[in-house]
Protein: COesterase domain-containing protein
Organism: Haemonchus placei
Amino acid sequence: MIGVLLLLAGTLVCSFAQVLELEPGRVHGFEYSTKGGEVAEVFLGIPYAAAPVGELRFEAPAGGYPILLWVHGGGYEIGSASLYGYKGFADIYIPHDIIVDTLQYRLGVYGIFFL
C-alpha cells in the first residue's frame, strides 16, 4: 500500500514539473516564487552546451538576457555550487531579469590538475 502511495506521489510531482526539450535530451525543472512575488523557472543539472565549431565558430552570441556566471570560491579545497542554493540567487537576480548559471568543478586531490 505504501509503495502505491509513493508511486502516485512521484507521478503527481513529475507531472507538474517543467520540461525543456533540448537536442541532447530533456531537462526537468520547476517554478520557484521569490520573496518579491516573481516566479523563477529553475533547472538544475543542465549538461554543457556544444562547442562553437563549424558555422558557429565566429558568430556573434544570440541576444537575450544578461547572464551571471557564479563560480564558488574555496581555494580548490572546499565548497560547492550547491551550497548557495537557488533561492537566494532567484530572490536577488530575478527582479532584475538576470539569468544565473553556477559552475561546479573538482576540488582537492582530484581537482583541476587531475584532468
About this structure: Confidence is low (pLDDT under 50) at residues 1-15. The chain is about 20% helix and 25% strand. The radius of gyration is 18 Å.
